[in-house]
Write a structure and sequence with these properties.
By secondary structure, the protein is α/β, with parallel strands linked by helices. The protein contains eight helices and twelve strands.
């Protein structure tokens, strides 16, 4: 069996996806390291040394992501090819979801929106709000610098201690908005606010707004399906607040267990013979 490896090299993590000759996803890996080169060689090294995949079985390595610019030469003697990140995001989102057309949302340090469909993958926009915002604010406000620590803290939080809701500011229901809809993110915070509540409020602040922007982007594309990709798409709090927005606006946000490695899989797809970019 020959495989093609896709690497999505980010600022803090490298994701690997290995596809077999039938384009089936057979292996995924995520590696965090102090620098991108260590993460790249660590991800491929685990595949070779821990999974017993011989270098002669690796047909190609396809590299995408902003951190890929640090890579020169080859990887364990295997040449690599660079893949445009926007196209890898688009193809990867369609691949994990099985959809023919959708808005693919890359939940990373910021948030990227990609319009993907038959014969067309386009950058639909983005926002400088995402995981980087979450961790930057958590570090400054709460003294928390590890994502898992923040997630566990948020598990114990109560939004009603930090946010204001529609039923608190009006006796009448406003248009389509239910009483439980957020009226003001973090609008109830004061010096006595618990860290656990603020942690949950940060998740809601960021991913509620990412979700609403996703809705606007979908409406602009005239689609009602969005595929969430990236490691953050696997976090419970992120999925919770995005799903609430999707339900509120009658949209379908698709989540998959392989969301973290979707862009890596999209990069790998470009390594197959006869596969054209944008298809």
């Amino acid at each position: 069996m020959g495989i093609i490896i896709g690497l999505d090299v980010g600022t803090s993590m490298t994701k690997l996806a290995a596809l077999d000759d039938e384009k089936k996803l057979v292996y995924t890996e995520r590696v965090s390291a102090a620098d991108q080169l260590t993460a790249i060689f660590g991800a491929v090294g685990r595949l070779i040394y821990e999974k017993g995949i011989g270098r002669d079985q690796i047909r190609k390595i396809m590299v995408t992501g902003v951190g890929g610019s640090f890579l020169k030469g080859d990887i364990f003697g295997i040449p690599f090819t660079r893949v445009d990140e926007i196209k890898a995001i688009g193809r990867g989102g369609l691949y994990i979801s099985g959809l023919e057309r959708a808005l693919v949302v890359s939940l990373g340090t910021g948030t990227t929106f990609v319009q993907a469909g038959p014969g067309q993958i386009l950058h639909a926009g983005g926002m400088a709000m995402g995981g980087g915002t979450l961790m930057g604010m958590a570090s400054w406000m709460l003294g928390v610098r590890d994502f898992e620590d923040l997630r566990r803290m948020a598990d114990k939080g109560d939004l009603h201690r930090v946010d204001r809701f529609m039923n608190e500011i009006s006796l009448d229901q406003v248009s389509m908005l239910p009483d439980y809809a957020t009226a003001s993110n973090m609008g109830r915070m004061d010096p006595d606010t618990r860290k656990e509540d603020a942690a949950l409020g940060l998740f809601n602040l960021i991913y509620q707004n990412v979700g609403i922007t996703t809705v606007f982007a979908c409406r602009n594309m005239n689609v009602d399906q969005a595929v969430m990709t990236g490691s953050l798409a696997c976090a419970d709090q992120v999925r919770l607040f995005l799903t609430q927005v999707a339900d509120l606006y009658g949209m379908d946000f698709y989540f998959d267990k392989n969301a973290a490695c979707a862009t890596a899989a999209g990069a790998a797809l470009f390594g197959f013979d006869g596969q054209r970019e944008g298809k």
